[in-house]
Protein: TetR/AcrR family transcriptional regulator
Amino acid sequence: MAHRKLDREQIIEQALKTLGKSNSFSDFSLRKVATDLQVDVSTLYWHFKNKQEILQAMAEAIIAQVKLPNQQLEWTVQLKQLFSNIFDIYEQYPLAAILMVETIPSSLVRLQLIDRTIAIMTNAGVDEQTAHIAATSIDFLLTGLVIDLMIENRFRQQITTQQDQNLAGHVKKIRELAQTHHLEHMQASIKMRNQFSAKQQFEKGLDLIIDGLKQHTH
Amino acid sequence: MAHRKLDREQIIEQALKTLGKSNSFSDFSLRKVATDLQVDVSTLYWHFKNKQEILQAMAEAIIAQVKLPNQQLEWTVQLKQLFSNIFDIYEQYPLAAILMVETIPSSLVRLQLIDRTIAIMTNAGVDEQTAHIAATSIDFLLTGLVIDLMIENRFRQQITTQQDQNLAGHVKKIRELAQTHHLEHMQASIKMRNQFSAKQQFEKGLDLIIDGLKQHTH
DNA sequence: ACCTGAACACCGTTCAAGT
DNA sequence: ACCTGAACACCGTTCAAGT
Structure:
């Protein structure tokens, strides 16, 4: 293709689409993005310094979509709404959570988001230190659950479509070990995972942390 | 080298050492493990099916080192001791946390660990559902913090040893953005990260979740 | 049974060369 | 200013061949 077509925005847009098509994060490559753009890989290196910079821009584009809750609302409602929004976006871009882990939160949008999260708590009377660790905890819980969810879905796909005996073996093994070694709580956990959606589990975890926070408010 | 030397145990032992020498998880490769073992890469494929299986065995070897707390102790003490032990092991093998994320917990040792964690809570009167989500939350908080810690250390190293302007730029940018956009809580967070160790932060997060759990016990 | 060597299909990154 | 093509140094994985 001739020149004078591409800009950074178009590259990031396609990169997010290409990431969406990928089965895993290691499946995602700049060469595939370039192919989808009908362009040589090396072209990307004129617009971006390296892969890390592209991932950074992708993460930024995703976080920019997060809608902040109304500040008039009660603080627990604000927290729940905010992270519910983030959860929904992560579900839309299933690999976005990994993107956040792989990337440094040095963009303004991401810093503002962290700042706002802490502000919600301190405005409710929580001390700065507790608010900081609570924000971190909620963030890790969210990304952890989404990554888990994604891995599970990938496995489910691989097992059904490609009949991957290896992965099917793992799932079977977990159930069997739980039974033969009488890991009763493990068995209950497996049931729970099937009974509640990842979002419901996240909400319960968030509630738990909020319960803890309430003891630090006054 | 001639044959009749290697076994799975030796490979995993060296793999953990090679992982320890790696600056990042993507830096770690089977080819490097093979070189350290003075053996051809393809040799590893006689002992293991693929890379995933090797990672799985590595994760298992690490978790096997976790010491379980005395069951006579009070439940909050048991929880704190258990996760303090896990934290210390993760600090010893800085990339172990990523290993856990990349890997399915289908080994007996890991399942037993999860089961035991939940058991500590249910024995204290916490319902099965809350105990399950709390165990998950604590686990994600721990791995999240350790991964963060590791990334930070890697950056610090790269900045000082290789004068990586790119990474130094990120750190500087965060401070600057926090100042110019008056992200006061963000500034306080940066201070706190320097003031408290990752372990101390984890302990505070754990305390928060325990505070939440106490409301579910009776 | 255990290991090697070569090959394959992938990566990210660089750089001289084109328009 | 923007893009290509070829090259480089890496990957994981397979497989015929050696001992």
Summary: The two ends of chain B are 64 Å apart (CA to CA). Chain B has a mean pLDDT of 89. Chain B has two domains: 8-48, 68-214.
